[in-house]
Each structure stands twice: as C-alpha cells, then as structure tokens.
Amino acid sequence: MLNKIKVLGSSSKGNAIILFFDNSRIQLDCGLENKEEHLNDLLLISHFHRDHFNETHYGMEENEIKELSTDHKRFYKDLKNIDIEEVNIHHIEENMAFIIRYENETILFLTDVGNMDDINIKPEVAKKITYLLIESNWCWFKMFENKNPEPHHLYSTSPGGHASNLQTLNFICRNKINENAKILFLHKSDSSNDERGEEIFKRLPQKWLVARENQIIYTKNWKEL
Ligand SMILES: [Zn+2]
Of 30, 112, 125, 183, whose CB count within 10 A is highest? Predict the structure, then answer.
C-alpha cells in the first residue's frame, strides 16, 4: 500500500513529492533538492519547468535532459507490481499526468495544466482513484483583489498554466472522482490564494489536505505528522 507521502515543496518555489510504498519510493517532480534522492526507485516529471525539474540538483548535461524529456521517466530499478500510466494532457507532449497503480490503489497526479476544462478521466479510472494529487493554484476573490492580477491564468490551457480552486473543484465533480478518494491539493500560489479559496472544498465528500513545504502525511488516516 501507499503508506506515506512526503512533500518537500509544492509551489512555484519548487515542487517535489515522495510516495512511500511498501518496498518502493517514487518521487514526483524534482524542482527542489532531495537529499535522499538515491533512495528513490523512480522519478516522474510532469513537465520541464524549473519549479518541477531543476537539473542543477542532478548534475545533468543538456543532452541527458532531452533524453529524459522524451521518456518522462527515469527508472532506477525495475518496479515490480507498480504500474505507471502516462496521460498526455491537452495532447501536448510537454506535460504529463501519471496514473500509478499498486495493488488495489490508484493514484492520479496532475499539475500545471491550466484550467482543466477539457481534461476528462475515463469513468472506469475515476471511480477507482484512491489518491488524487492535483493542483489548486489560485482563488478568484484574491486574484481580483490583487493590484496586478494575472489574467493569463484565467483561461490558460498551456503547460505551466494554473487551475483555480474552482476549476479544480469542477474537475473533481465533473469527472465523478471516487468519493472515498483522498485528495492532496498542490501548488498553491502565495500571492493569488488564501483560505477563502479552500472554503469551496468543504462540501466535498472526499477527505483532503493542502500540500505544504516539509509535510509528512500518513495515508491511513490522512493526517499530517
Ligand atoms: Zn509549476
């Protein structure tokens, strides 16, 4: 089973999350240094923006990065029993979502894909999702109060574009994500979000948490350490 989730960071300052399975560790994105990187079995990269992939941590040459970007994954060991499905978002190669399946658990990881209006998950997958790790970047109230709103976010469907809390809620409801799934909201904007944006999630049947720097979550009771 998925036992623990460690968030090293989840914002434009850097994204990196480690999933701890019984005998394996999978890291999602590497926009921050992970001192225990050698303990990972697999690294999955959503897209190649600096906050999700910082090659300086890896001492990689440019051609190695290109090689990686065509594959989107970097295997260290053969992961038995864990199945990884890449989902091409918006039919744009630069951005990948991942469906990770282990025993009877299904984890969907989806971030930086803009408004999500045209992203639909197959119903047979949606009802099996046990963990949803999904971006919820900005709040409408806060965005319009800001002196310098970032309107390009509002309708963006580009890789690196960001979804609002409401757009993320819409995705969850429209796709009928399993009501027993546990949700981790990712990539909150410091400047364009606040607690009012989270109000709209309070009526969701799913249990949810907001990702923050240096956070450890025990999956069994969906509680932070
Ligand atoms: Zn990002």
Answer: 112
Q: Which of 57-61, 149-153, 159-163, 216-220 has the highest mean pLDDT?
A: 216-220
- CATH number, domain of 90, equals 3.60.15.10
Query: Residue 169: how many CB atoms within 10 A of its CB?
Result: 17
Domain that holds residue 211: 4-224
Domain count, the chain: 1
Residues 44, 56: Cα–Cα separation, whole Å? 17
Q: Any idea how long the chain is?
A: 225
The Cα 103–Cα 184 span in angstroms is 20
Percent of the chain predicted with pLDDT > 70: 83
pLDDT category at 157 given cuts 50, 70, 90 is low
Angle at 26 between CA 25 and CA 27, to 5 degrees: 120
Instruction: Give the Å distance between the CA of 186 and the centre of ligand 1.
Output: 10
